Amino acid sequence: MKTCQDTAELLSDYLENQLPKEDADLLKSHISDCPACEAFIKSFRVASETTRKVLLRQIPQDFNHRLTSFLRERTKQG
Ligand SMILES: [Zn+2]
Q1: If you measure from the C-alpha of residue 50 to the centroid of ligand 1, how many angstroms do you get, rounded to a whole number?
Q2: How far is the CA of 51 from the centre of ligand 1 (A)?
Q3: Nearest to 27 by CA among 45, 14, 16
Q4: Helix locations, 16-48, DSSP H
Q5: pLDDT tens-digit profile of 7-41?
Q6: Has residue 46 got a pLDDT over 80?
Q7: What is the pLDDT of residue 56?
Q8: Ligand 1 centroid to 40 CA: how many Å?
Q9: How far, in Å, from the CA of 48 to the mean position of ligand 1?
Q10: What spacing in Å lies between the alpha carbon of 5 and ligand 1's midpoint?
Q11: What is the pTM of this model?
């Protein structure tokens, strides 16, 4: 079972196909259940390779920041 935090940490490896299959599968199943991660990854998939390489270096902070606000909003409502 992966969390959003795991996804953020493993995302660059995942997109570069550097993750072991087991991790990649767990990540994929998290992504298919998590709209936040799915949307985020989609936006990286459409980026050009050059853009992606630049963006990948910035992921952890930005991704965590976005997820934190996303989850905070959700918690408020629940
Ligand atoms: Zn997630």
Answers
A1: 25
A2: 22
A3: 14
A4: 21-33, 35-45
A5: 888 887 887 889 999 999 999 999 999 998 888 78
A6: no
A7: 67
A8: 9
A9: 23
A10: 7
A11: 0.58
Residue found under tokens 């991660």: 37
> How far away, in angstroms, is 8 Cα from ligand 1 center?
8
What's the CA-to-centroid distance between 67 and ligand 1, angstroms?
Answer: 8
Cβ contacts of 31 within 8 Å, gap of 6 or more: 7, 37, 38, 41
Report which of residues 46 and 5 the model is more confident about.
Answer: 5
Reported as a single tens digit per residue, the pLDDT across 50-71 is: 776 776 666 666 777 777 788 7
Q: Quote the ligand 1 centre to 32 CA distance (angstroms).
A: 9
Nearest to 1 by CA among 24, 28, 30: 30
